[in-house]
Automatic annotation (TrEMBL):
GO terms for cellular component: cell outer membrane. One of its GO terms (biological process) is iron ion transport. The lineage of its organism: Bacteria, Pseudomonadati, Pseudomonadota, Alphaproteobacteria, Sphingomonadales. Residues 207-697 form the TonB-dependent receptor-like beta-barrel domain. This is TonB-dependent receptor. Pfam families: Plug, TonB_dep_Rec_b-barrel. It is a multi-pass membrane protein. Residues 1-24 form the signal peptide. The keyword Ribosomal protein does not apply. It comes from the Bacteria. Residues 50-159 form the TonB-dependent receptor plug domain. Belongs to the TonB-dependent receptor family. It is found in: Cell outer membrane.
Length: 734
């Protein structure tokens, strides 16, 4: 009944505004108002404007990314309703993204994401390595809700589309230098332009960051949280003939620094930045990735054939103080190596203004090698485990939008996917291999794997295949040029798989089955007052079958605990979200958003409370990483000041409700009150920009996760995020 009330309210408001929108458009025809960002969410040949895309989608262009001082993907989520983009905390660069209550609360790389990240059209196969510094971006698109039709598996919560800048036809260059609290220094630059006329274009972008560390470790009173990051990104675009375009991109990155600043609630207040870690934790990552994109315009349906090939190789080694204390109680070492190949071939075209078609084939291959070591009580030996997983998947998809009447379009589509995974897993209690030849390492290896020699004794081998259909059917109704209604039903699938961090042979590492989401959604996109007022709304109702969770249970053999992944429950999630943008004058821009999400379990297949029975207590638990309310508001005001140029003042506030990090609801994340602000000066010729900015000005404590651990009452492993940051940034562009 609550959902019905929201539905009626939304339709009533939109209906009251219909006639006003139509008359406003007639009175102000020809005035563009606020520029629309062209998005790629529908994979149409020439993209589609944000306001004409029948999806709950938010987007930021290059200017917005720079003005908001966004340095990684986690920085974009605060201003978007029902979105939570957090870091994994324990491993630098690991994403724990959640949209509409569907997310991941684990760093196990074989647990697939529910929010997929796509960089230049290429799906990123694991959450690790997603949150490293972003720069040289053209736009970021955030799609809320299942996107299975066009983007495939592991987008049950939504998708994040990141587009880097293409080479330019005219010569251009930019340089940026900045410094932040903690002696965090950033230098970046790019040069772009023609190499051989208009036929061959090139670009080179370089980024370097030296973070001296924002935190102070109470164990030795030294600075902590430092890192160094280097990224280089060349690109070449070749147009050998009219209508044919080839774009090659490459990126190399390297990051080295401290590990997680892990707080223990048994020792320090969760509202402080104090922590004491005796373990010299670290995080080291490097990656290489490349894409090759071809676009060929064809006469058939005035369409375009696009092929996107992607390759990525990623490695990470990390050490974590897992007891989060000044005592040598426990620590962990991990090594992750991933390599992926993917290719998507698609056609998009339009036939006689009757139907728009997008159809294609997709292939993905991934190899994942993971090893984990755990040491307790400063023992000379550690228990090792790990696994190797090979994945292959392919898909066929097709969507057709039929223009059945003036302003009315029927949306249809279907995707078929098939995936196979093959694993070899070494549990922690597997006997040690002999003859490894390792004599000098950080700690002496014991157990199933040798993390130095990259050798394991496997106790579990298996393979399994899954197939799925993800349909979509709906309609969109353009009541007036700037008033769009839409409604649709669709499905999404999150891949099944195995747990490569298995504790005991007696606990099977899988397979766990796919997670399935059925989503009904309707919305309205409205612009008034010569497009100076934009008001977008959406409501949704989701049924989730087979929720995938990483849970901790007692092991019946030796009385210890084991982490494993299972399908634990079915659930219902519904909610509403609104976004408002208003430009009362050309100098002043106001924005606000609000989102509400309600989730509850329908059926329970697992004892999440750990009391030995599945009962009403389990069903009453809150879904992890689901914040009922998200709210944001902000403004930007630009004013010319004589010969100084344009001065811009900007500030924003965001609120995120309390949520639980784990399924048993024993670890809770803090309520978020985030205030950011900046003042910028841009020269008259638009070449120079200097900014003074602040992030988290209220100095509120946030965590990447809150995991209860053994030891003192209330003990936790809670990786801290940075507090108040003040920075200065200078940019030159030509």
């Amino acid at each position: 009944m609550k959902l019905s009330a929201w539905t009626i309210s939304l339709l009533a408001v939109a209906a009251c505004l219909q006639s006003g929108a139509a008359s406003a458009q007639e009175a102000n025809a020809g005035n563009d108002g606020v520029d629309d960002i062209i998005v790629t969410a529908t994979k149409r040949a020439d993209g589609q404007t944000l306001q004409k895309t029948a999806l709950a989608i938010s987007a930021l262009g290059a200017a917005q990314i720079e003005s908001k001082q966004i340095r990684d993907l986690a920085g974009i989520g605060n201003s978007i309703p029902n979105v939570s983009f957090d870091s994994g905390g324990t491993f630098k660069g690991t994403a724990n993204f959640s949209i509409r209550g569907l997310g991941v609360n684990s760093s196990i790389p074989s647990l697939e994401p529910s929010v997929g990240v796509f960089v230049d059209g290429v799906y990123q196969g694991i959450n690790a390595g997603i949150l490293f510094d972003t720069f040289d971006l053209e736009k970021i698109e955030i799609l809320r809700g299942p996107q299975g039709l066009l983007f495939g598996r592991n987008v049950t919560g939504g998708a994040v589309l990141v587009s880097t800048k293409r080479p330019t036809r005219d010569f251009s260059m930019s340089m940026r230098a900045g410094i932040e609290t903690g002696s965090n220094v950033t230098v970046a630059g790019s040069v772009s332009g023609p190499i051989a006329g208009d036929k061959l274009l090139g670009k080179l972008a370089v980024y370097y960051n030296d973070d001296g560390g924002w935190f102070t470790n109470s164990f030795n009173n030294q600075k902590y949280g430092g890192s160094r990051t280097f990224i280089i990104r060349p690109a070449v675009e070749f147009e050998p003939a009219e209508g044919l375009d080839l774009l090659l991109r490459f990126e190399h990155g390297d990051q080295k620094g401290d590990g997680a600043a892990a707080q223990n609630f048994a020792l320090y207040s969760r509202h402080s930045f104090k922590f004491s870690n005796d373990t010299p934790a670290y995080s080291r990552s490097n990656w290489n990735q490349g894409t090759a994109e071809m676009n060929l315009d064809v006469g058939f349906g005035s369409g375009r054939i696009t092929n996107v090939f992607g390759w990525r190789q990623f490695e990470q080694a990390a050490r974590v103080d897992t007891d989060a204390s000044p005592q040598p109680l426990s620590d962990s070492y991990t090594f992750t190596k991933q390599e992926q190949f993917s290719n998507e071939l698609r056609y998009a075209g339009s036939f006689a203004d009757i139907v728009d078609v997008t159809t294609g084939l997709f292939y993905f291959k991934q190899n994942l090698d993971y090893q984990d070591a755990r040491r307790a009580n400063n023992a000379p030996t550690a228990v090792y485990s790990g696994g190797i997983q090979d994945s292959h998947s392919w898909a066929w998809f097709s969507s057709a939008d039929f223009h059945v009447a003036d302003g009315l379009t029927l949306n249809t589509g279907l995707r078929y996917s098939r995936e196979r995974k093959k694993v070899r897993i070494a549990s922690q209690d597997t006997p040690t291999a002999t003859g490894t030849g390792v004599t000098s390492v950080d700690i002496i290896p014991a157990g199933a794997c040798n993390i130095v020699a990259r050798q394991c004794v496997f106790d579990f081998r298996d393979s399994k295949s899954w197939s799925s259909w993800t349909p979509k059917v709906g309609f969109e109704w353009t009541v007036a040029p700037s008033n769009l209604f839409y409604a649709f039903w669709t499905k999404g699938v999150r891949s099944g798989g195995y747990n490569v961090r298995n504790s005991f042979q007696s606990v099977a590492p899988g397979p766990f089955e796919p997670e399935n989401v059925s989503n009904f959604e309707m919305g309205n996109k409205l612009q008034l007052l010569d497009k100076r007022l934009t008001f977008n709304n959406a409501i949704y109702y989701q049924k989730v079958k087979g929720l995938q969770r990483s849970v901790i249970i007692a092991n019946g053999v030796n009385g210890s605990t084991a982490a494993f992944i299972r399908n634990t429950a079915d659930a219902t999630i519904w909610g509403v979200e609104s976004e408002l943008r208003f430009n009362p004058t050309p100098e002043l821009s106001l924005n606000a958003s609000v989102g509400y999400t309600h989730g509850e379990y329908d059926k329970m297949f697992f004892d999440l409370t750990g009391d030995g029975v599945i009962d009403a207590r389990d069903l009453a638990l809150a879904l992890p990483r689901l914040s009922p309310w998200t709210v944001s508001a902000g403004f930007s005001y630009t004013h010319p000041v004589g010969d100084l140029g344009d001065v811009t003042l900007a500030a924003d506030y965001s609120y995120r409700d309390r949520s639980f990090y784990n399924d048993s609801n024993t670890g809770a994340l803090n309520i978020m009150h985030m205030v950011n602000g900046s003042i910028s000066v841009q020269s008259d010729d638009k070449r120079w920009t200097a900014s003074l900015y602040g992030k988290n000005l209220l100095n509120k404590v946030q965590f990447g996760g809150v995991t209860p651990i053994r030891g003192l009452p209330g003990a936790t492993l809670a990786p801290l995020e940075k507090g108040r940051v003040i920075g200065i940034d200078v940019k030159f562009q030509y």
